[in-house]
Amino acid sequence: MKRKKLIWVAILTASVVIAGAVTYYLLQDKKKSIAHSNHGNTDSMRMPMDSSQNMEGMVMKEDTQSMEGMEGMKGMNMGEGSDHTGKGMLHDIALHTLFQPTNSYVLSTMPVTRMLTGDQNIDLELLGFTAYNTSTIGSVAARITGRIEKLYVQYRFQKIEKGQKVMEIYSPELLTGQQNLLYLIKNDSTNTTLINSAKERLLLLGFPANELTQIIRTGKPHFTVTVYSNYSGHIHEAGGPMGSESSGKEQMDVSQQIVTQELTVKVGKYVQKGQSIFRVYDPNKLWALLNVYPSDFPFVKEGTSVLVQPEGYRDKSFNGTIYYVEPFFRPGNRTVTARINISNEQLKLPVGIQLRAKLLNTRYKGDWLPKESVISLGLDKVVFVKVEKGFRVQKIETGVNTGKTIQVISGISKQDSVAANAQFLVDSESFIKIKKKV
C-alpha cells in the first residue's frame, strides 16, 4: 500500500512540474506578444530580462525553511512565488535530483548530528554459572596396596569433615611392618636406630600415628589400617573404573557431573599404591565462570570489577573481581571463560546456579554516534550523510555498542553530518542499496 502511495506521489509531482513548466512558457509567450505590439514605444517602456532572470524557476534552490513540516519529498514547493519586483518565480527541484533512486537518496530536513570523540560507559552484562574451585580440590589416596575391608562413604557428594574416617584397608605390607617393629621392641629394645627406622617406615606408608602408639602399648598388630580425610567438603569419586584417573577436562566440567550415581568403590575391591580413590571438593570455595564473547574482549580483563546477581537469589548479589581469563575456547563453545573467586561460607550458593554479572566503572574511548543514527542491515551498518540537497546512504564500520551509542571505526569523518534518526528516513517496505567499492 505504501509503495502504491509513493508511485502516485511521484506521478502527481511530475504532473505539477510539467504544469509549471507549461505555465512558465505561456507567460513568456504572452510577454513576447505584448512586447511585439508595443514595438514603437520608447526604451523606458521596455522591460529587459537578463539571462539569470530568464532561467528563474528552473534553478535548484535550497531553502531549509520552506521544507519544514513536509514529509517524504520535502522542499518541493511547486507553487508560484513573487520577489520584490513582482515578477513570477517558480521554486522547484531539478529532475535529475527528483528522480534519484529512493533506496540510496532521501530528500528531508531531518535534524543532523555528528560523531563525538570521548569516553563512554560500557553497559555490559555477562552470563555464567557457579562451579567448584578446582584449586581447592583434595585427594584421598592409597599409600599402600591392599583390599578395602570397610567403607564409611556411602554415596556421592556425601559431606565429610577433616579427620573423618573414609575406609579401612587390609595390607600385607603394613602388617609385616608392624610385626617387624614389635619384634625389635621385644628382642632388641636397646637398638633405637632400627626401632625408629621401623616406626618411620610405617608412618610414611600411611599408618596413623595414634594407632602406632596403640600397637606399641598393646604389643598386637592391626590387621587393617584406617584411611582418614585431610579435607572438608563433598566426596566425589576420583575416576570411573578402579585404578583409572579422571581427566583434566572432567575436573573443569565437574559442575556438569552432578548426577545421582552409585559409587564404583566397593568393599572387597583392591587399591594400588598411589591410587587416588576420592576427591574432596570444598563447597565454601567456588568459582563464578562467566562467558565472554569475542566482541567483549576489550572490556573484560583481569582486575575488572563486576556486580554478580545469582538467579533466584535477589538478596544475595555481591561484588567481585575477575582474577583470570582463560586463554582458550572451551570445546563446543564460542566464548572464553572469565573466573571470579566466590567465598561461599555466608552466601551458601548451590553449584551450577546461573549468574548475571554487570561490569562496573568500565569506560572506552572512541568516536560515537547515537544508536538511532545507525541502521543495521544484518552484516552491514549504514547512516544517512547530509549532502547538498538531502541525505545519501553511507556504509560504516562499527565497533562497540554501549546500548545508547555505537562506536564508529570508519566510513565517515568527524566533519560529516548524519541524520539524527535514520530509521525515520526508511520506509518499512524499502530496501537500502549500498554502493560497493570495486
Please characterize this protein's 3D structure.
The structure is a single chain. The protein is an alpha+beta fold and 438 residues long. The model is unreliable at 36-92 and 240-258 (pLDDT under 50). The protein is rod-shaped. It has eight helices and 25 strands.
Please tag this protein with its features:
8 helices; 21% helix; 438 residues; single chain; Elongation Factor Tu (Ef-tu), domain 3
The total count of strands amounts to: 25
Strand proportion, as a percent range, falls in 25-35%
CATH class designation of the largest domain: Mainly Beta
Helix count equals 8
Low-pLDDT runs:
36-92, 240-258
3D shape: rod-shaped
Can you say what the CATH homologous superfamily of the largest domain is? RNA polymerase II/Efflux pump adaptor protein, barrel-sandwich hybrid domain
Domain module count: 4
